[in-house]
Design goal:
Length: about 120
């Protein structure tokens, strides 16, 4: 598992860059909700613009990373690497972005939101 963690460091760093870009875009686009007098549609447009500009490249990177992770897993397969390692390698970008997001809103609020929806 140590090899998988070392190999996945670039994916973690890129996911951090994408989350940072999303937050910077939200900050730069802050006038959008103000222009719409802070109505609900203004907030939706504000988040949609930032998400659209960041989500496409993030998904493209995640797909490329999935192919790379599959190749790494295939190379390490004779060394006894398992299915859990494949799941780890393929999920690194999404898990990193999810962990950062959960860390920003706080664990208590994330758990409360998850239990409220179920």
């Amino acid at each position: 598992m140590l090899v998988c963690k070392i190999v996945s460091v670039p994916a973690v760093l890129m996911a951090v860059v994408f989350v940072t870009l999303f937050l910077l875009l939200l900050f730069v686009m802050l006038p959008v909700p103000a222009i719409t007098c802070f109505r609900d549609i203004g907030f939706k447009i504000w988040i949609a613009i930032a998400a659209f500009l960041v989500a496409g490249p993030f998904l493209a990177f995640s797909l490329v990373w999935a192919i790379f992770g599959l190749l790494v897993w295939t190379v390490l397969l004779p060394c006894g690497i398992g299915e859990v390692h494949l799941h780890f390698l393929l999920g690194v970008p999404f898990m990193t972005a999810l962990a950062i997001g959960e860390g920003m809103i706080g664990h208590d609020r994330a758990v409360a939101a998850a239990t409220a929806t179920s």
